[in-house]
Amino acid sequence: MPQKPTACLALADGTIFYGRGFGATGEVVAELVFNTAMTGYQEIMTDPSYAGQVVTFTFPHIGNTGVTPQDDEAEDPIAPGIVVKWDPSEPSNWRAASDLIGWMEKRGRIGIGGVDTRRLTRAIRQQGAPHVVLAHDPDGEFDIEALVARARGWTGLVGLDLAKEVTCAQSYTWNEGTWVWPGEFTRPESDRPYRIVAVDFGAKRNILRSLAATGAEVTVLPATATAEEILARDPEGVFLSNGPGDPAATGEYAVPTIRALLEKDLPIFGICLGHQILALALGARTVKMSHGHHGANHPVRDIATGKVEITSMNHGFAVDSQTLPEGVVETHVSLFDGSNCGLQIKDRPVFSVQYHPEASPGPQDSHHLFQRFATDIRARRT
User: Fold this and answer.
1) Is 356 annotated as catalytic?
2) In the annotation, is 341 catalytic?
3) What's the total number of domains in the chain?
4) Which of 30, 181, 282, 302 could form a disulfide with 54 if both were Cys (CB 3.0 to 4.6 A apart)?
5) Per the domain annotation, does 1 fall within a domain?
6) Pair 190, 226 in one domain
7) Of 31, 73, 217, 358, catalytic
8) Are the beta carbons of 286 and 279 closer than 8 angstroms?
9) Same-domain check for residues 147 and 100
């Protein structure tokens, strides 16, 4: 006799996917996206940029390396749920501190296995990222009509400021560097020659580690920090972090802050949501993408050099390059769809990229951008 499904994924168009539930029980409404990375499922789930999104993994072997606190990008997983092809297996990895299923159950995150993720991914690519409800009930009792109605009634990410939900509650100093074999994080020298303020719109820990590894003293401030609060820290450079939600919504309070900082001629470096909000502050616009970019295999071309870098991405909104004002140049474009992936102000140390150069997960092709930021800060001193 076939086993009764214990989880279901209800799309707003009425399509239902049944499977086997794992992790926490209950239900969650969110936007559904797919991620093409072959590694790093823990980093993906704990990336604050995934707030409000259920992640479909196109790679089937999810859970086989377990989880370890060293790989958390935030204190808790942010993605409310995941969809996988095969049920997570027992971990086979010397670094594993626990298994994925138990970790998700303790952290209140829902999973569904046994789903045709290829079919689901094709649907997302063709129709755009749908609104869904993911439900897990060990008894397999689901009110499908109610689940679909809830998915249809959800307003989605447009107009939603999620940075306030994932940002830090108060300022702190970050003093941990990047991970090195056989499993330790470096500690930068106590005498760090320059000061960076990182504005936390949902910052990943490995981005902060990459900043610290350049030799900087890194102070992290909440997303709502004003220009006066940032400048009171006497920074020599300002970093605008990644994060979730609609950049235009977050920009209601962040754009005036960034415009005030631009008047001070400080080096500024933005990533992901930070890139989008910087563009808004400069006078450009952002748009909602059909299904976004999520994965660790996205080719991006540097327009100035022609060099192609394979990058890690996670975004559902993009900067409209046609709206960039005079004096602001497009520096990088996606080779998948031609969308904007970078900008800079002419003759000023202000630049940003759409992708995640810290590469967690992902290739390290773009790690040089952190050194570029450090070089801009050192050059300003002289």
Assistant:
1) yes
2) no
3) 2
4) 30
5) no
6) yes
7) 358
8) yes
9) yes
Do residue 136 and residue 233 come from a single domain? Answer: no
Q: Is residue 158 part of a domain?
A: no
**Which residue is catalytic, options 131, 291, 332, 356?**
356
Q: In this structure, what CATH number is given to the domain that contains residue 190?
A: 3.40.50.880
98 plus 240 within the same structural domain: no
Q: Are 141 and 179 contained in the same domain?
A: no
Give the range of the structural domain holding residue 348, as residue numbers without chain letter: 163-381
Q: Which of 272, 293, 294, 298 is catalytic?
A: 272
- Residue-by-residue pLDDT tens, the chain, 382 positions: 358 999 999 999 999 999 999 999 999 999 999 999 999 999 999 999 999 999 999 999 999 999 999 999 999 999 999 999 999 989 999 999 999 999 999 999 999 999 999 999 999 999 999 999 999 999 999 999 999 999 999 999 999 999 999 999 999 999 999 888 888 898 877 777 899 999 999 999 999 999 999 999 999 999 999 999 999 999 999 999 999 999 999 999 999 999 999 999 899 999 999 999 999 999 999 999 999 999 999 999 999 999 999 999 999 999 999 999 999 999 999 999 999 999 999 999 999 999 999 999 999 999 999 999 999 999 998 7
